[in-house]
Amino acid sequence: MRLVILGAGESGVGTALLGKKEGYEVFVSDFGSISEKYQKILNEEKIEWEQQQHTESKILNADVVVKSPGIPDKAPIVKKLHEKGIKVISEIEFVYQFAKNTSIAITGSNGKTTTTMLTYHLLKQEGLNVGLAGNIGESYAKQVAIDPEKLFVLELSSFQLDGNIDYNPHIAIITNISPDHLDRYEYKYENYIASKFRITMNQTEEDYLIYDADDEAINNWLKNNQTKAQLVPFSLTKKFEKGAYLEDNNIIAMINNEKITVPVAEIAIEGKHNVKNAMAATLVAQMMRVRKQTIRESLSNFQNAEHRLEKVAKINKVQYINDSKATNVNATYFALESMNTPTVWIVGGVDKGNDYDELMTFVHEKVKAIICLGIDNTKIINAFSPIVDLIVEASSMEEAVKLASKASEEGDTVLLSPACASFDLFTSYEDRGTQFKNEVQKL
């Protein structure tokens, strides 16, 4: 069997290692350049590869093709594969047939990284043999090649779900849905929503779908479509016999008539959205028979992901917060919602069809100045100039942080929460967040 892998990043190289272990003839092709680290791994394993080109004669003879989630379906080589009827799948779809244990899969427009890390943390603290993969950490393929017995907690983006055909997680979570990546979905919100719900399409009556029952897009989908999975909702406003809800500032989670109570005040991560993330993770932990004591302890000692509402430093009594991972409007909505001091907001980057209307109330209430950090800031300036007096543009992180420091005074917060992708001025949201932290330390 010939396995061709398009894209030689973390997931592509991991898939190559697993493919070789499982006896496939493997070829890796990347239209960009392959980093030296990955070239070395492929060479050591004697796996054939190419970069900066796609040689059709070596690709169109594949039995199966695994493509990187970053490569769109409209890429010429993918179109040719489809025309020839060659199966093009995701890393997740390829790997899951070799994993010996069930998996827990988490998707959503926002909150999926925190919920994935929190779920992993809860299961690990209980001593389960658990792995963390998908859109986060080391590749799922590479980890299954090493230990196929592990129980995996997978963070899945809509792009990863698009390549799934038979993949079936035992427990699926949809944290929320808001417009994102619409450029990949013909600018149709319903296409993006359908993509998220691919997480449950192969689930059976023995599986579970945990979801935010306060989310309009999720509720509408469930009203009009069917899943075989058992539905397990969580909410800040409604109560359930099976699911999680709030009562007197406690999270109550009920599964199989077993109840656990966790005071919101004891959760390590702040903000309403994180109460929901904690609800989802708690429900998984209960399903996996984690002890109540472990659940409570783990929720109180959890450390969130870097670049997600990360407190960087307090300088001249101004708090600097790095939320570079907020690459869409909805993520920034949660960030602004959790601010309780006057805020200098650093925003901007590559706009993915953003609509800033939903931020207006928070911006009006909390934001005293805006620093635009992007090549084209017209849309942001037009949206917010009627309600924010001070809006300035910066062309580098150094300039943005200096301007923010000038615009802030004792008791304020400077928040980097861009609501946009980072590729105009930075290599990634991590690069953007790291530069922010470095510039803050220089103040």
Task: Explain what the structure shows.
Cell wall formation. Catalyzes the addition of glutamate to the nucleotide precursor UDP-N-acetylmuramoyl-L-alanine (UMA). It is an enzyme of class 6 (ligase). InterPro entries: Mur-like_cat_sf, Mur_ligase_C, Mur_ligase_C_dom_sf, Mur_ligase_cen, MurD. This protein has 17 helices and 20 strands. It has 443 residues and is of the alpha/beta class. The chain has 3 domains: 2-89, NAD(P)-binding Rossmann-like Domain (Rossmann fold), CATH 3.40.50; 93-301, Mur-like, catalytic domain (UDP-N-acetylmuramoyl-L-alanine:D-glutamate ligase, 3-Layer(aba) Sandwich), CATH 3.40.1190; 310-442, Mur ligase, C-terminal domain (Protein-Tyrosine Phosphatase, Chain A). It has a 6-stranded parallel sheet with strand order 7-8-6-9-10-11, covered by helices on one side. Helix 1 runs parallel beside helix 7 (140-146), helix 6 crosses helix 11 and helix 16 crosses helix 17. It starts with a strand and ends with a helix. The model has no long low-confidence stretch (mean pLDDT 93).
